[in-house]
Amino acid sequence: MLRRVLYTFCLWSVLFVCPASAQTSQLSVQVVYLAGGHIYLDTGTDAGIQARDTLSVERNANQLGEWAVVSASSSRSVVSFIGDPFPVTRGAQYIIHFTPHSAPLTSESSIVDRPNTADIRTSILSRKTEVRPPSSKHSPIRVSGRVYFDMSTLRSRTGASGLGIREQTRTFTTPSTGVRARISNLPGGLDVRTNVRFSQRFSSENLVQPSTLVRVYQASVQRSFRNIHLEAGRFYNPYERFSGYWDGLKIHFGSRGLGGGIIAGFEPSRSDAQFSPDMPKATLFINYGVRRRTIRYFATASFNQLSPISAYRDHTFIGWTHSLNVSGFRLSQDIQVDQHPLRHSWIVSRMQLRVSAPLTKHLQMLGRYSLLQPYSVTNLFNTIGSRRDQANVGLAYFARGNSAGLNITSNSYPASETSYTYSTYFNIPRTFLLGLGFSGNANYWHRTPLSTWYLTVGLQKRVGKAGVSAQYSRYQSDTGVLHLVTHSVMLSLNLPLSRRIYSSLQMRTQMGQYLTSTSLFSSLSLRF
After folding, report:
1. Under 8 Å between Cβ of 250 and 10
2. Which of the chain's ends, N or C, has fewer CB atoms near its CB within 10 Å?
3. pLDDT at 21
4. Mean pLDDT to the nearest integer, 273-288
5. Is there a contact between 30 and 429 (Cβ–Cβ < 8 Å)?
6. Does residue 25 sit in helix, strand or coil?
7. 366-376 per-residue burial string, b: 16 or more CB within 10 A, e: under 16
8. Dihedral of alpha carbons 229, 231, 237, 240, sign
9. 44 and 72 in contact (C-beta within 8 Å)?
């Protein structure tokens, strides 16, 4: 009954709203530090990035996913994942796309909605944006975005005669193309946004299936009027980060200072991200935010209902997120509480507590605790998964674009020994030695009798507008029975061909006793 009401309400709402939007910006950023679920970038508010922003991330013309900005200062920002995490390397360069704002937010501000969240991972406290009336008939339709083409190839050899494993050689080739576009000033004040990727995957012995893969990251239509904002299609809700991606309708009343909304639709297929009518869901949420001179606070709460049209059980859960920033001291917490489908009791399935405290002008102490015992809709016999507790503490140093830090992380599981990870890193973007930049990181993981080492060192150099880098990595794993060591070398070149055309080339070779591989990646990206 609740779902029917929500669907009907949103369908009627689409008829009565009009638009607002902002120009998307693109920046190249570098990862300077990793700490638990947080990623530290070398770019901040001076470049237009603000706390609670959503950053769409790509590298070598590959769409990787999204980050949410947890906090930001003039020259750096702290981000965390939205949706599924993807590999991130200290010292690596990434391209981010986001929508900058114009002026600070107050609790009375009227804010136009814009996609954002966090780690699945937060909502947004942004800056004040003037609400604009619908575009007039004299305003030309505006199309902006980018299209890209890339090619990745991999040749690998596996085998170990001493272990009786037959040697095998495999090849993989994947040409891809994609488009990220926005069409604004459409009749009726509509604003269309899309992000689609198409890949054709070839492999020896047809190892990779399906061979044709289409990924739709966003395909939505937006309209705004005063303090009402509507979005329809595929999207991610910027105000609550617990319900995931949607194929449906969202209506938000009020602003990021104070507001609330309703969403109804379907969850995309978890196997291939295609539209599926099997997982209808609905969400009610409220949000509150305030931004003063030295205080920033944001909170959101949501009630979520997933009702599969199958033998799977319903999933009812509540999510709550809040964050506080007072004069550089940052504290945030996320918690999700699920109703057990059989006992009907409430269980904390996910919780995160993060803190960052300045010790000196350039030194920060970082801490994080997380609890995870995920709810599985498809597992009828063990709906609540095994519990994992993770805690880490670290120090981060930033000065004149240079950075360094260390971190200790523990992971605990029931009836299992606690494992520990010790990591450290440094990054110097440019030195007096031929203008070279240096970076490195080391990680050691241990749980008796298992242990792994990972070491990376890199060089970077700007040659005109081009960026050249080289990186060496060593990985070592001991199981008490098997000792495994691999070495890898990576060379990369990023070269803008014009103001709107970018190209990149990357080659990587990995060498080991049981595995050797060579990969090549090339891309061409055109902005329009």
Report:
1. yes
2. N
3. 35
4. 92
5. yes
6. strand
7. bbbbbbbbebe
8. positive
9. yes
Half-sphere exposure (Cβ direction) of 466: Cα atoms closer than 13 Å: 10
C-alpha–C-alpha distance, residues 484 and 509, integer Å: 17
Listed residue (421, 456, 524) closest to 146, CA to CA = 524
- Distance, CA of 453 to chain centre: 26
Query: pLDDT at position 451, please?
Result: 93
* Domain that includes residue 55, residue range: 2-527
Say which amino acid occupies 405: G
What amino acid occupies position 320?
Answer: W
Query: Which tokens hold the place of 172?
Result: 């993989």
**In the beta sheet, which residues pair with residue 456?**
441, 473
Cβ atoms within 10 A of the Cβ of 203, count? 15
- End-to-end CA gap in the chain: 46
pLDDT of residue 475: 93
Place of tokens 């050797």: 516
If DSSP codes are grouped into helix, strand and coil, which group holds residue 464? Answer: coil
C-alpha 344/C-alpha 324 separation (Å) is 33
DSSP secondary structure string for all residues of 298-354: EEEEEEEEE--SSSSPPEEEEEEEEEEEETTEEEEEEEEEEE-TTT--EEEEEEEEE
Q: What are the C-alpha distances in Å from 214 to residues 7, 179, 199, 245, 526?
A: 27, 12, 6, 16, 20
| Amino acid letter, residue 391 | A
Beta-ladder partners of 388: 372
> Above 70 in pLDDT, residue 284?
yes
Reported pTM: 0.70
The pLDDT value recorded for residue 114 is 32
Is residue 5 within a helix (H) or strand (E), and if so which, with residue range? Answer: helix 2-13
Angle made by CA atoms 218, 501, 494, in degrees to the nearest 5? 95
Distance between CA atoms of 37 and 368, rounded to whole angstroms?
8
CATH number for the domain harbouring residue 352:
2.40.170
The tokens describing 512, both together, are 């080991």
Q: Which amino acid is at 26?
A: Q
Question: Is 441 within 8 Å of 452 (Cβ atoms)?
Answer: no
User: What's the domain count of the chain?
Assistant: 1
310: closest CA among 363, 377, 364? Answer: 377
Tens digit of each residue's pLDDT (9 = 90 or more) over 230-253 = 999 999 888 888 888 899 999 999
SS3 label, residue 194: strand
Residues 128 and 111: beta-carbon distance below 8 Å: yes
- Distance between CA atoms of residues 9 and 306, nearest Å: 18
